[in-house]
Each structure stands twice: as structure tokens, then as C-alpha cells.
Amino acid sequence: MDIADIATKALKKIAVRKGKKLAKTTAAPVLEKAQPIRMKNRMDEFFNVGFASRVVMPESVTERKLFIAGYKMDHPVTGVNDPLTVNAMWIDCKDSGGIVLVSADIIGLTGYDVKKIRESLGDFTKQTGCKLISISCTHSHASIDTVGYWGRLLPPKSGIDKKYQAQLMQAIKEVCIKAYENRKEGKLYIGSVRVPEAIGKGRAAVNDKLTRLRFAPNDGSEETWFLNFGAHPNTMGGSNTNISADYPYYLREAINREKKVNVLFSVGAIASVNIADLAEDRLERTRLGGEALAKAALGIDNDEQLDAEITLVHQPYYAPIENYVLAFMFILGLCNSLAYPSKESSLGMALLTEMNYIKLGKQKILTLGGEAFAESIYGGYFSAEDSGTGIGPEVNATPLAEIAKDPDLIVYGVSNDMTGYMVPSNNAVLHPTQAYLSSARDNLDRNHYHETNGLSVDITHVIAREFADIIKRTER
Q1: CA distance 261 to 215
Q2: Using CA atoms, how far apart are residues 361 and 301, in angstroms rounded to an integer?
Q3: pTM for the whole structure
């Protein structure tokens, strides 16, 4: 037995002890089945949409230690390549209330911090009738640690800088309010285009579709686009120490060189999917990836106007935690979490998280806190011969687009929480003695890193079950 085996046993024992303590001291709130909220403009075809943006950068990146997020612990920031921003889009259909979609150039936020932001906007929510504030993170691996995972290694310390975190949360609050104040009447469209040249090779299933939610104001002023694409913003690479929004920055910049547009961006099914190797130099590859997507977005020619209707289901749910390494990070306080006792977990713990089902006209959108594999959303699971376990796709959860009965379902990933990877069951491989601590190699000698950064290997089934329940209540 080596030291990693000993550490595995110790970490699991600590997590189980914490689960037992939670069971004695904390009661898990009972979660109601959320009923659909429906908003509809019965008078005309117009939506009201507003946009706001804020740069959210520290005054200095050298006055105190900030950590680059996404790759490894103890990776301090040394410079700036391009600025990080937060953007917000208010949408209503001239009925009571509306929703706010936020896009932030950060690695992620835990549900704990999202809850704090929403609470700080309590008066705004009451005054405007806002039904949902949804915060999607672009998941840039060159942004500042806003989760806590990537701080000091020895002794372990959270990577969150409290001053920057407060600045970030205030900026999100401000753009939500300003987006509402900036709302204008106009039409909302959905369009898409395939961009296979922007996707890196190596996956059996990818979704190379770039989708564009486009708002055109009646007064002819600047349009607002919300773009979605399934590739990891990790193009700057693991050795980079400069702050960057990665390819979403270059995507926005390239669009605005051709047409002045308000641009928001969210990642889709990004697990194990990267921008194509368009150049050897990392910065050049990042720029070219963003510009390829910008060119594609500018060329979308299949827009369909959306009816002025909004359907919303905001559904909290419990995700059992089996990953004792992540549980240990919660226990150490490296990141904030909404952990509660659970009988469905061998550790006795579950994360209180959420998903949001949004329909804008006919367009279906699902927000998820984690990083999905494309096959879990759109199908195309590995066969028994190609899977990491030798087991066929019959053990996998039903793909979410199939549950929604819509192959054009859009997923906003890394939204409203940070729940990690969601690995399909027949391709989930854990290390035999160091599960969740060390990556494993499968029967085809492929490395399985993603399992160590997910809540459990059963999370896809939990999500599919919750989503199916939402669809059953909503699509009647």
C-alpha cells in the first residue's frame, strides 16, 4: 500500500465522519417540485431586452497574490493579457416580470456565492418582478480563482481573494440592475451554424453547433447576441500566468470589428472538448479560435423569430457526493458549498444545487452547474467496444435532448454552481484503490481524469431524472 492509498482511506474516513456530523446537526430542506412560470405577450410580438457590461479586474495583479484558475494549485497571476468582463441580458415579454441571463468571464461560482448574489438583489427582484437571475460562467482557465480550488498547496488555502470576490459580486449586481434599466422593445431570434473547424479532434461525440440568440431593437440601436458553443476556454494552456478571458474575448472583439454588437457567451457541452489546434503558439491559437467563431456567428443566415413567450422552471435538487476529495475541500473551507446530509450517498452528503429550464418562444434552454459530455446531451454514447468499461450504452442515462424531445436543446454549462464533470456511466472509470484521488487508465489505455473532478459517477442519472420530471410537469 503506497502513500496515495493511505491518503485515500484517510480522506474517505474524514468525509464519512463529516456526513455523520451533518446528519446530527443539520436538516436538509425539503425541496418542492417547482411549477412552471409562464409569461406571454398577448398584445404583440415584441420582447423587452436590456444589456449591461462591466470590466471586473483588480487594480493591480501584483499588490497581492492572485491565483490562476483551472489547472493546478499555487499558480500565481503575473500579468494581464486581456480584461475579464461580466455581462447581463434582461428579457421580458411585457408581462409581469422577466429574467436576467448573466455571462461572466470566470472559471465558475459555487451555488453558495450565487445565493449570496441573488440575496443582494432582493429589492431588485421585488421591484421588477424578476423570476430568475441565472449566472453562467465562461469557465476560462486563465481567469482568477473564484471558487477556491486553485489556491496555496501547502498548507492548503483557498485561492479566493476576498477583495476581488466582493468586486466581482458587486459588478454582477450592477449589471443586472443596469440591464433592466436599459431594456428596449424589439424582436428575438434564434439561429445556428456548424463550426467543425473550431473543434479539436479526439472525441467520439462533440456538438460543433454555435447558437445565437439575437435581439434586434425596434429603434435600430445595437443588437444583443447571446452565443453558445461547446469548447473549453482552456486554450491559453497550463503554463500561462496572465489573466485572460480566453477565446470568448477574441470572439467578442472580432464580432465588434465587423458590427457593433453587445455579446454574451456561455459554454455548452465542453467536457473533453477543446478549440482546434489552429496554431502552435497558445495565444495565437486562442485568437484564431475566437475569430473563427466570430466569423461563423456573423454569417448565421437561418434566424427564426421567437414568439414573445417565456416559460421558466427553477428547480433546486440534491446531488449526492461520492467524491471524498471534493468533500474534503468543502470541509477544509477551500470553497463554499451548500452541503446537506443525504442517505443516498455513501459519504452521507449531498450538494444542494439547481437546474433551470427556460423556453424563449419555442427555444428550449437548460442551465447546468457542471461540465457535460456532448453524448449525455445529444446522444452518441460509446459502444461496448469503445467504452472505457467494456459496457454498452444501455447503462447510460437518457440524453437530455431526447428527454426534451428537441435535438436543438441549448445547454448553458457551468451555470449557477460548480459541480464538475458529468461522465456517462459506461465510460466512467475510477482508480481501483485511489478512486477520486488519482486518475485511472481504462481497458484501452486511455486516461480518465474527469472522474476525479465530478461529484459522482452516477451524476448523469440524477440530472436526467430531475430534468425528465421538469419536462413532465412543463410540456403538457
Answers
A1: 10
A2: 19
A3: 0.97
